[in-house]
């Protein structure tokens, strides 16, 4: 346990009682928060996150959190409503549908790779794949479908993959996220725990965690930007982001955020990012799919 | 009275947990935070300065061998932090610039850049260890 | 700029034991601190801390406003230490450890402290 700094602050001030109390309380804290595989309780985590926001923004209904910052900030909402009169992702959606329905050279199509022909399944992603022992994302399976049918995989961040994913999300709108963590496979719970740990860990020269901006910092100005709440974060992806001027995937956003901490960012669809998506989407269980979305 | 009894116990405990070395770091950081670099302070009956070890390395004679040693040291720590997924952007940039300076015979500059890279890489590893131990404190209950 | 800064610092250092710093030098320090404070690619302090300076543009409010600094930090060094590493006092703080992570140099931190200590 490396709580050396705090230990010494207390010792140097001669407050030895405080030291012993602190050591005890630290152990108790770790037991409560589920930092170990034996104790982590995703459902308790999810409810605690909802409670956090219920306290923070008491008048915002849970389902509204799929709208990110626009759920909790009236001024931003007004601008966004104006933008959404003509959603900027409309053309991407059309293209995505066309791409989705265009057969591969071998005559097969995306619909052949997915349950229910790929329609209305977004709310089940990402999921724990027992056979492969890893978290699988929708984009990952879109590319696997291509490769299995003799097509080249698409780049992860923008373009066709985002459009196809957008169309698949659109056919799932209103369905509520139902991410499962199979209890009989402890590796799934470990993946969730790893994602949770990623979310709360400070990174980069700027020493920022996801939580710094999107939990404690939500709806507090960083220059002219208001970070959105962590709850409901992944529900609207892929997203047409005005800053990008185009549609992009969740992992493109992860990479950008990670880089903004002055880290060397991990690549899209890396193991760590997929686990982060698993954790974040589980946190959004019960919220409806509303992708694709539009954000500033 | 109570205090007298507890001190040896605590010192033993801290020894056992390998925390004794960290106490110097704590004092060092405090002093550097208050006074900047080059400030003298006493710890453990000795006089120290608030120069980072890397800054002291960069004060060695500016020559190719010393520059190379600093660059290699920085690169080793950078690789270590990348392996645990905590690499910062700075070190690779400064290492590249240090190599350019070395190639151009600007040894002093090469050593300063490499020292900065090495310090940042060391901090990134410290951040990793700190996150491993303390990340749970940020989770809402 | 860098040369100017080191010259200033040489001047300040040579004068460290000979009474207060000259007015011109302090003005230069404040000007440098102000540049750093408001510059996105340097300190970018303004992204989180509002300050009542005419050049302030789109201030954030993740952190407290720079006001009543002398009352809040009667000992200016404590303010310096807080800028150097805010996580020493609060490990969860969103504020980047400006000195500890070498985001600004020690000289730049001194200049920023000089600038904000007026408010």
TrEMBL record, chain A:
Q: Primary place of residence?
A: periplasm
Which InterPro entries does its entry note? Cyt_c-like_dom, Cyt_c-like_dom_sf, SoxA
First-tier enzyme category under EC: transferase
Q: Which reaction(s) does its UniProt entry say it catalyses?
A: L-cysteinyl-[SoxY protein] + thiosulfate + 2 Fe(III)-[cytochrome c] = S-sulfosulfanyl-L-cysteinyl-[SoxY protein] + 2 Fe(II)-[cytochrome c] + 2 H(+); S-sulfanyl-L-cysteinyl-[SoxY protein] + thiosulfate + 2 Fe(III)-[cytochrome c] = S-(2-sulfodisulfanyl)-L-cysteinyl-[SoxY protein] + 2 Fe(II)-[cytochrome c] + 2 H(+)
Signal peptide start-end? 1-30
Q: Which is an annotated Pfam family here?
A: SoxA-TsdA_cyt-c
Which NCBIfam families does the entry link to? thiosulf_SoxA
Question: What is the protein name given in its UniProt record?
Answer: SoxAX cytochrome complex subunit A
Q: To which species is this protein native? A: Marinobacterium sediminicola
UniProtKB/TrEMBL annotation, chain B:
The protein's superkingdom reads Bacteria
Q: Where is the signal peptide?
A: 1-21
Q: Which UniProt keywords apply?
A: Signal
Q: What is this protein called?
A: SoxXA-binding protein SoxK
- What is the scientific name of the source organism? Marinobacterium sediminicola
Q: What is the lineage of its organism?
A: Bacteria, Pseudomonadati, Pseudomonadota, Gammaproteobacteria, Oceanospirillales
Automatic annotation (TrEMBL), chain C:
Database matches in PROSITE patterns: CYTC (PS51007)
Signal peptide boundaries: 1-23
> Does this UniProt record's set of keywords contain Ligase?
no
Q: Enumerate the InterPro entries for this protein.
A: Cyt_c-like_dom, Cyt_c-like_dom_sf, Thiosulf_SoxX
* Cytochrome c domain residues: 28-119
* Key words, A-Z: Heme, Iron, Metal-binding, Signal
The protein here is known as: Monoheme cytochrome SoxX (Sulfur oxidation)
The scientific name of the source species is Marinobacterium sediminicola
């Amino acid at each position: 346990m490396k709580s050396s700094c705090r230990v010494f602050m207390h010792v140097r001030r001669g407050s030895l009682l405080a030291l012993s109390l602190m050591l005890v309380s630290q152990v108790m804290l770790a037991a409560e928060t589920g930092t170990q595989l034996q104790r982590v309780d995703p459902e308790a985590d999810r409810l605690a996150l909802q409670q956090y926001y219920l306290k923070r923004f008491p008048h915002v209904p849970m389902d509204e959190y799929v709208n990110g910052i626009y759920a909790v900030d009236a001024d931003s909402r007004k601008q966004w409503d104006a933008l959404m009169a003509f959603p900027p992702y409309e053309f991407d959606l059309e293209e995505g549908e066309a791409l989705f329905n265009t057969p591969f050279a071998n005559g097969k199509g995306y619909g052949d790779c997915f349950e229910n022909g790929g329609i209305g399944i977004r709310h089940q992603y990402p999921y724990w794949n027992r056979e492969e022992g890893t978290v699988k994302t929708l984009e990952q399976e879109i590319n696997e479908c291509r490769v299995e049918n003799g097509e080249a995989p698409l780049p992860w961040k923008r373009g066709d993959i985002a459009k196809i994913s957008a169309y698949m999300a659109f056919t799932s709108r209103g369905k509520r996220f139902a991410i499962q963590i199979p209890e009989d496979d402890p590796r799934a719970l470990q993946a969730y725990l790893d994602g949770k740990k990623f979310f709360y860990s400070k990174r980069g020269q700027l020493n920022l965690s996801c939580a710094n901006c999107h939990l404690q910092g939500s709806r507090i100005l960083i220059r002219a930007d208001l970070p959105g709440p962590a709850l409901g974060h992944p529900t609207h992806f892929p997203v047409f982001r005005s800053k990008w001027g185009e549609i992009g995937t969740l992992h493109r956003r992860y990479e950008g955020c990670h880089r903004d901490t002055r880290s060397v960012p991990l690549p899209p669809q890396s193991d760590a990012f997929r686990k982060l998506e698993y954790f974040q989407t589980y946190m959004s269980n019960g919220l409806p799919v509303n992708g694709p979305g539009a954000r500033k | 009275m109570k205090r007298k009894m507890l001190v040896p116990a605590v010192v033993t405990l801290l020894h056992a947990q390998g925390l004794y070395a960290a106490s110097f770091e704590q004092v060092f950081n405090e002093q550097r935070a208050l006074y900047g670099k080059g400030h003298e302070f006493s710890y453990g009956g000795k006089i120290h300065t608030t120069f980072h070890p890397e800054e002291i390395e960069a004060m060695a004679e500016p020559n190719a061998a010393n520059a190379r040693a600093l660059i290699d040291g920085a690169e080793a720590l950078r690789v270590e932090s990348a392996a645990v997924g905590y690499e910062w952007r700075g070190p690779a940039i400064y290492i590249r610039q240090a190599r350019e300076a070395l190639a151009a015979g600007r040894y002093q500059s090469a050593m300063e850049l490499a020292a900065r890279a090495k310090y940042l890489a060391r901090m990134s590893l410290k951040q990793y260890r700190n996150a491993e131990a303390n990340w749970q404190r940020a989770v809402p209950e | 700029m860098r040369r100017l800064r080191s010259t200033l610092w040489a001047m300040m250092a040579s004068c460290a034991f000979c009474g207060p710093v000259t007015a011109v030098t302090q003005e230069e320090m404040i000007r440098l601190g102000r540049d750093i404070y408001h510059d996105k690619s340097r300190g970018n302090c303004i992204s989180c801390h509002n300050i009542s300076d005419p050049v302030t543009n789109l201030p954030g409010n993740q952190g407290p406003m720079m006001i009543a600094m002398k009352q809040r930090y009667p000992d200016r060094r404590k303010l310096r230490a807080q800028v150097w590493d805010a996580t020493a006092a609060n490990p969860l703080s969103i504020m980047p450890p400006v000195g500890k992570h070498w985001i600004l140099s020690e000289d730049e931190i001194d200049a920023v402290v000089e600038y904000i200590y007026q408010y």
